[in-house]
UniProtKB/TrEMBL annotation:
PANTHER family: ARGININE EXPORTER PROTEIN ARGO (PTHR30086), ARGININE EXPORTER PROTEIN ARGO-RELATED (PTHR30086:SF20)
Keyword Transmembrane: yes
Keyword Membrane attributed: yes
The protein, known as: LysE family translocator
Spans through the membrane: 6-29, 41-65, 71-93, 147-171
Highest taxon listed in the record's lineage: Bacteria
Organism: Phenylobacterium ferrooxidans
Subcellular location: Cell membrane
Main location as per UniProt: membrane
Amino acid sequence: MTIVQALLAFTVAAGLLTLTPGLDTALILRTAAVEGPRRAVLAMVGILAGCFVWGGLVAVGLGAVLQASALAFNILKWAGAAYLVWLGIGLILRPRHSFEVANAPAMKGGDTAWMRRGFLSNVLNPKMGVFYVSFLPQFLPAGVPAAPFMLLLTTIHVLLGVAWLSLLIAATQPIARVLKRGAVVRWLDRATGGVFVAFGLRLALERR
């Protein structure tokens, strides 16, 4: 794919994944509802800073792998594609039936503590690292330097996160009610699973 096609495809896919409720969503909703929007914004800043940490580590690491061995990079891409397909099938066949804001961990402390907790909840979540390793390389066009391009993709993901989490903070109660509906959670999980499967298969069928 071309650079423009890769950026558009990633924006659509990452946008859908951003909407899918997870720990970050629960953390923001709970913080905004209990502690107010200011501390929710601080938690959001910490979460998104964690995304940059994961994205930067993956970009530098995969960039070094690509420079050292194209074969190793392709093996990593294939492994990531297989993981995405496996994860996607699981989401399609076994979607969640509910999403509870109360599952977010309780937090105590001053303003800086909220930012630190948001950051640590992201950086210490190994699923984020697996996600970035598996997902970012699928959108790397042939011949494009890996590290700068994947940092660009990370920036796009973070900007989408800013928009969505800001919306969560601004409309906490209505959005929380929507996300508690089983049908909505099941639809989002299945749609996300479809995205995972589609990009995993795209890589498997692509000729380079």
